[in-house]
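Methods — Computational structure assignment.
A single polypeptide chain was analysed. Its primary sequence is given first, followed by the predicted tertiary structure written as structure tokens.
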Amino acid sequence: MVRVEFFHDVLCAWCYALSPRVRRLAKEHPEVQIVHRCFALAPTPEAIVAIFGSKERGKREILNHWRAANANDDQHRINADLMASRPFDYPYSMPGLLACKAAEVQGGQAAHWDMFDRVQRAHLTECVNIADFDVLRCCAEEVGLDVHRWEEDYHSARVRQLVQADLDRAQALGVTAVPTLVAEGRFALVGAQPYERLEAWLRAVESRTGTGADRAADD
């Protein structure tokens, strides 16, 4: 078994492009175990101003990243022009991260992944405000979570601590950008790489660690 930690942020357009490829990797290589890790590009409402100088400049520059990521995305699902027309401030990370971690508490890694993908679709394709709790609640309902339990977990100290643990894990591993994949706590792959590059990286990890399908079958 190869343990791959997938560091991502709900805000990250490049993560949106990569997630379907990682799903394919996990499906085609059952020896791969994906562990989802939160990463906060803009943890607070003030972060965009701190990074870019103003909310307006931040949104413009971020949407340029969206356009570049859309060219990378296999299905070109990212709608920068629609987001540019929206009147709300560009969202910040923490509400969406808490939403995904609350899903994980209820349904494990699969639920985290489903919630992450749904929140990203809301953000990058539908271009609704994922800092709005009602939007996140609708996402939780659509992926089949027990919404009452999800709400309780979302607001709990435990879920906030679990998000912080992921952020601490990123720091401990030296993760400074997303998306980043880290295999066996040692081998990192950064960026929205094409599927063929993911497979080549996995083979290299398996070769160096002696892990993989053959070993898993022998255990």
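Note: The CA atoms of residues 49 and 111 lie 32 Å apart.
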